[in-house]
Amino acid sequence: MSDVTIPGGRIRSFVERIENIDTELAELNEQKKEVFSEAKGEGFDVKILKEIIKLRKQDQDERDERESLLDLYMRAMETAPPEKTAKAA
């Protein structure tokens, strides 16, 4: 047998803390769903609310770059002539 001791109490402490955090996360996710449901019930578009949340997480430079690229791509598509699609054989 090995003389190495494994601190079981310390391991249990970590595991229980992680389990508690998982429980808290599940509760928070449930609360988040309830808020989205409430907003939907009041006529708000949940997809748009999620997009706003996503944008607010970005810093201003990142947001500006994304909007510039989106605008550039949209203008490129609008000005490009339609491509002829190849027919399947």
UniProtKB/TrEMBL annotation:
Keywords: Coiled coil. GO terms for molecular function: DNA binding. This is GapR-like DNA-binding domain-containing protein. The keyword Coiled coil applies. It comes from the Bacteria. The lineage of its organism: Bacteria, Pseudomonadati, Pseudomonadota, Alphaproteobacteria, Hyphomicrobiales. Residues 9-78 form the GapR-like DNA-binding domain. The keyword Coiled coil applies. Residues 11-38 form a coiled coil.
